[in-house]
Amino acid sequence: MNEIRNTATNLMDKNLGRNPVSETYGQPVQDPSGATMKAVVFDGSKSVKIQQVPKPTITHPKDVIIKTTACTICSGSDSHMFSGEIPGIDKGAVLGHESCGIVAERGPEVKDLFVGDRVVIAFDIACGSCSFCKRREFVACDTTNDSKIMDVNYGAHHSAIFGYTKQLGDVPGCQAEYIRVPFADVNCYKLPEDIPDIKGLYMSDVLCTSLHACELGNVKEGNTVAIWGMGPIGLFAGRWAQLIGAKRVIGIESVPERIKIASSRFGFEVINRNEVKDVPKKILSMIPNGPDVAIDATGFRFTTSMLQKVERAVGLETDSSDVLLECFQSVRKYGNVSIIADYVGTSNQFPIGHIMMKHLTVRSGQCPCQNYFDRVLEALRSGKINPEWMITHKVKFDELPDAYGKLFYKKDGYLKVFCEL
């Protein structure tokens, strides 16, 4: 693992193998006027701040510049960035991947968007033309991320993502007054007048990703679904499961405020980790054969065993497999496991035998938001999906650094914020 890290670091330092064409997609170019804007930037482990940075300009004919009207913090990916555990990010990098706004400028080859249009921005950046995009596998786009670091670490590269690391395109994020969106016709979705920002904003990630979690798990009518983690993704994965027709949704959580929301607002059965030592045993007492679908919405930082805590602490692994073991132990034979939470490196004691011996189907991966926008919009309009169920705090832009800490440490009931610019 150290050898992989060292190789990746060397590549970052030398900036090897960059494609001069795709470089214009990710790297910021300042507005010719010299204008600046406010943005949330990474300032080291567990530290972010508001800083004046160059206002972006159009650098490719398919770009648009969006004037941000609302943004939020991802309690998963942004918290991973905040923790400093994701390699490949420098101080001053603009964070965030969940925003909506108004088209302020458009490139000459943008076809479907015009100045003044309200849009939500997909967190994943796709070109729309490569072989992966043509199969609608947008998060595997071959054009927008030329990271050789990812090729070394994984044998292939992911699409670029706003506000993430050198592995994922090094594209400035969306927690800023203005955002440059490459391949805008692919990565922006028009918001109709009847969908206000407080609802449309969350199409950028949460509402699409939670639906993707159910798709990965092949949730069907009549299923029982168990979900590890009652953060925004876990909550709305459960809500989508209800809409699909699941007969039972069981959430597993330890944070009291999240337990309350899952139970009272979403109507889930909830297992309180503070009261239950053996989660699989509890689940199997409720559902003797186990649930049809298990969804992991927790991620690589969550540990339950001392062994995993020690191995992560001393660098023997990057990711804990504790939750995955609980999922595999609990789900029924021939069941489906959906891994929607972030995992980034290696994990020891990974329970591969469970997959084989229980005949499990395991699927994972980031969400291609572009595939779900129409379906999410329909659910928003009908009221079947309402993101206001998860919003616990409305904050001002200058308050976002404080909100990062509250979300990371799960303080003061923080679950999801809404920031209007």
Automatic annotation (TrEMBL):
GO terms for biological process: cellular detoxification of nitrogen compound; cellular response to nitrosative stress. The keyword Zinc applies. GO terms for molecular function: oxidoreductase activity; zinc ion binding. Residues 232-307 form the Alcohol dehydrogenase-like C-terminal domain. Pfam families: ADH_N, ADH_zinc_N. The keyword Metal-binding applies. This is Glutathione-dependent formaldehyde dehydrogenase. Residues 61-192 form the Alcohol dehydrogenase-like N-terminal domain. CDD domains: FDH_like_1. It comes from the Eukaryota. Its cofactor is Zn(2+). Belongs to the zinc-containing alcohol dehydrogenase family. It comes from Schizosaccharomyces cryophilus (strain OY26 / ATCC MYA-4695 / CBS 11777 / NBRC 106824 / NRRL Y48691). InterPro entries: ADH-like_C, ADH-like_N, ADH_Zn_CS, GroES-like_sf, NAD(P)-bd_dom_sf. The lineage of its organism: Eukaryota, Fungi, Dikarya, Ascomycota, Taphrinomycotina. Keywords: Metal-binding, Oxidoreductase, Zinc.
